[in-house]
Amino acid sequence: AARATREALRATDQAQRATREARRATEEARPTPPPRDRTPEARQTRAPIRSTPPPPEPSAEPSVEPTAVGTEAHPPLPPPAIATSDPAAPAPSSTAGP
Fold first, then answer.
1. In the chain, helix, strand, coil percent, each to 5?
2. pLDDT tens digits, one per residue of 1-20
């Protein structure tokens, strides 16, 4: 009986040691990886640059240049049909909405 208890205590001690070692490994691994600090900065710098320039420049500039209305950059954004058709266009659109 005494041997069984001793073996059980040894097993528990080994398990506790294993858990302690695992905790140490995890603690050491957590602060070690610096990529986490670098990734957010890279994402912040890369994300805005990639998302901002491509959509506005290619979609806005080409559409404005061919339209030959470079000065009126805002009007071309809404549907040209409304801008071309007199103020009567907004009336039907508002009536059709409700």
1. 70, 0, 30
2. 999 999 999 999 999 999 99
